Amino acid sequence: MTMQFTKAHATGNDFVMIADPAGGITLSPERVAQLCDRHLGVGADGLIRAVPAHAFDEGRDALEAVGLTCTEQAPLWFMDYRNGDGSIAEMCGNGVRAFAHFLLSNGYAELEDGGSLPVLTRGGLKTVQKVPEGYAIGMGIWSFIDPEMAAERASDSLVQAAGLEDPRPALSISMGNPHTVVALPDTASLQRLDLHQAPKVEPVPPHGTNVEFVVPAEPLVETGVGRVSMRVHERGVGETLSCGTGACAAAAAVRVWAAGDGVDTWKVGVPGGEVTVRFRARPDGAEEVELAGPAELVYTGTMH
Ligand SMILES: N[C@@H](CCC[C@H](N)C(=O)O)C(=O)O
């Protein structure tokens, strides 16, 4: 069966995008892995199927979970994200930016300046706004994977990776999907890392993890903005040029380690560019996270 696709990227994190307005496309993990293979397929870190939530079982369950309804006339689009190895993930922050850009550019959705586009994901309802740097995503709240960390605010695991002399302490954070953040002392040690093999995390969070290595800038905060550099090894993918949920987790961890210095805006430099992460405290003490950055459509083709 032939199928139209679009290749998109958001700070170098690249995706095969497929529109499925009728909800009739089934993709096995093997088919996804083949399409994402950089030699045998289109090549991408992940695949995203855009499907109206009311058009398939998982989407209808997700709609019910957030207490919303949608129809053919007024669809609420579900981001069916798969990792490059064919596995399913709860959320993809860069993916939501690429997804919104794909929907808007192809006339599947509309978004006026100042307006907000809702997007349903396995990690819940997200919102998208147009901003000067591209799109800003309302990501929901972040949380510690190990609840004891809420009091200790230090490290819950050790990470070893090729290029590191010794295992280093790390903190695991959920952005809907799992992340383990490791601080390194300087840019040279970040560059020395060999992320061809998955880093070893001990103990590994229950559903596996994405691992972010971060180097806080010197000074960490300038004119009220915190800055970190990051490289990432993604669960189900390998090293990628950027990870949006990872950038949010990295900023949250550095903010925790920097002991409540009240910095709410963070610039996270990744090999594929830069994203901005903002935190906003809620009355119940939890913190809402916003992720902003660019998204681009690269080309459209037909696959066989
Ligand atoms: N690159 C994504 C995250 C994709 C999912 C991740 N590999 C996982 O398995 O959780 C992002 O931009 O957030």
UniProtKB/TrEMBL annotation:
Residues reported in the UniProt entry to bind substrate: N13, N83, G93, N94, N177, N210, E234, R235, G244, T245
Intracellular or extracellular location(s): Cytoplasm
Keyword Amino-acid biosynthesis set for record: yes
Keywords: Amino-acid biosynthesis, Cytoplasm, Isomerase, Lysine biosynthesis
Similarity comment text for this entry: Belongs to the diaminopimelate epimerase family.
Gene encoding the protein: dapF
Catalysed reaction equations from the record: (2S,6S)-2,6-diaminopimelate = meso-2,6-diaminopimelate
UniProt cross-references to Gene3D superfamilies, sorted A to Z: Diaminopimelate Epimerase, Chain A, domain 1 (3.10.310.10)
Active site: C92 (proton donor), C92, C243 (proton acceptor)
PANTHER family given in the database record: DIAMINOPIMELATE EPIMERASE, DIAMINOPIMELATE EPIMERASE, CHLOROPLASTIC
Protein name as annotated: Diaminopimelate epimerase
Pathway listed: Amino-acid biosynthesis; L-lysine biosynthesis via DAP pathway; DL-2,6-diaminopimelate from LL-2,6-diaminopimelate: step 1/1
Site keyed Could be important to modulate the pK values of the two catalytic cysteine residues: positions: H179, E234
Subunit text: Homodimer.
Stored NCBIfam families: DapF (TIGR00652)
Record EC number: 5.1.1.7
Role noted for this protein: Catalyzes the stereoinversion of LL-2,6-diaminopimelate (L,L-DAP) to meso-diaminopimelate (meso-DAP), a precursor of L-lysine and an essential component of the bacterial peptidoglycan.
Domain of life: Bacteria
